Amino acid sequence: MPPYTAPTPAVLDTMLEGIRYDQAGLIAAIAQQHDTGEVLMIAWMNADALRETLQSGRVCYYSRSRKGLWRKGETSGQVQHLVQARLDCDSDAVLLLVDQIGVACHTGRRNCFYRAFTPEGLTEISKPLVDPAQLYHSHS
Fold it and tell me: 20 by DSSP, 3-state: which?
């Protein structure tokens, strides 16, 4: 895939007009590694986070716990660069094809889907690649 190119402001405004946010003003955002298809994580975006992501090419989410914008990698260094964004058929979810730098999960794993439902119960299928305590310090 070619590198991400941001739309012009007028085109961006037109694209964002039809987004269907939930009652809290959020839309589900699924991050997928662009070249392998690995599903990395799901998070939430508000209108500002989606706009910033599409303008900058660096993924920005909305943190429900912090009630503010969360620029992926801002404190951990584990950045997601946007390759392409796709809107689903109902206009209420986005698929972000990204180039993930480092791990995507706050637990230090490559992706957030590290537990499988098995006959024995939830089974951990991947170990942390990075100590979570090492992820959260300033990368200014």
Answer: coil
